[in-house]
Design brief:
Blueprint (H helix, E strand, L loop, with lengths): L3 E2 L4 E2 L8 E8 L3 E9 L3 E13 L4 E4 L6 E6 L5 E7 L2 E8 L3 E9 L12 E9 L6 H8 L3 H69 L4
Parallel strand pairs: 1-4, 2-4
Antiparallel strand pairs: 3-11, 4-10, 5-6, 5-9, 5-11, 7-8, 7-10
Length: 220
Amino acid sequence: MMLSVAPAALVLAVAWICPSYALYFHIGETERKCFIEEIPDETMVIGKYRTQLWDKTTNSFLPSTPGLGMHVEIKDPDAKIILSRQYGSDGRFTFTSHTPGEHQICLHSNSTKMALFAGGKLRVHLEIQVGEHTNNYPEIAAKDKLTELQLRVRQLLDQIEQIQKEQNYQRYREERFRMTSESTNQRVLWWSIAQTLILIITGIWQMKHLKSFFEAKKLV
């Protein structure tokens, strides 16, 4: 079964402002929801989701049955698939970006269990964590036996590292924008030169044509 992509992908360019967010959305049987996340290179991203199925009897969303699953597909800025996997009704996916830029995160329900929908709709709760927000600091503190001060220093170091990555990503974006601007300016310049040459050639041709016409009519 072919899955139709939503008319407009939901754009969530919030990695620079808030590296962690949660939301929920509704999808139909054949609907595919895609999100765009701007991520620096070498940055870990963790996504968690849980699904709820609409129950007509209670007129509310209830936890989905175990047979209902979600397919997660993630593409990097070069449209290369870096993750494509089937999960259950609740799931957790992880990936690390190797190319800075817009990563596309798409989710859709599995096509083999559509009878579970029974014409209803599915609510998906999605949480995305980026960078140092993916770290479980209580677990790190217990594993490495860190004091509260040491743990705080560790958090600050991770935050500084993430800030550096984000700054590098902004410089990367600025460089690409500058290259695009220079390329556009060059094209405009060459187009202006080409237009000028065309006008000059057209003017010369018209002058010669008029001269030949007048000579033929013995007006000159």
